[in-house]
Give the backbone structure.
Amino acid sequence: MAKIGVVLHGEDEDAVTCVRNLIDEVEGNGHEFLAVEEDATGLPRVTVVDEADFGAQLDLVVSVGGDGTILRAVELLHGADVKVLGVNFGDLGYLTVIEPEELHSAVDRALAGDHITEERMLVSGELRGETFHALNDIVIERAPGQTTVRIGVTIDGEFFTYYPADGLIVATPTGSTAYALSARGPIVAPNHASMQLTPVSPHMLFDRTLVLEPETLVDLTVEGHRAAVVSVDGRTIADMAPGETIRCTRSPRVVRLVAFGRREHLVVLKSKLGLADR
């Protein structure tokens, strides 16, 4: 018997139906399904657990939605070493690997070990003694109502420069195809270990992304008199007052995504971005 965690896009009725069908199909195998209260609504025979306990003793997490749902699954795991199987109900789906009709067989294969594992690095940010972890990115942006924010960047203890900008993105290779891509950052192979520091609408001539070694210590300080906000994987987590610093570096945590056969990064990229063969 396996314990399977469920995270889904609850506003998508098709996603809810997909999980209901999965429970009906595999429940006879003795598997137990667990979910936090937000995801358990409308699902039969699911054990509701607290968010803090979600990752404990799970054998697999099934994420039914888009990439945002996988990001939430990673957040709920709190670093627990549990593999994540992504089912695509989203638009782009860089992280999701199977279609809804494949879910039952994919769960059976994942539990049987008939799969490969894609390991993705995370980036961490430490602010006021609290540490946050992101699969895609940590973003420091101007506070609402502000025109810009001025961010001082120190790299491995050496001051680099000030960025007057709408914000700065500290991205992982996985996150290079998320917010960083829209800010004209580079596309980085997801299995490459690095951090990318990309300015958002900088008010300066230097507007290029810095690609740094993953263990680099990057201190970002809000300078001047304008405040900033910090978001982790698209979720706002804190305000930053002038003079405050967040330290970013490679997280000790990793995310393990279930895949069935090697996924060619460029093939996925062409498909998701609609790049036609020429």
Notes: Residues 3-114 form a domain with the Rossmann fold fold (CATH 3.40.50.10330). The two ends are 50 Å apart (CA to CA). The mean pLDDT is 92. Residues 13-26 form the longest helix (14 residues).
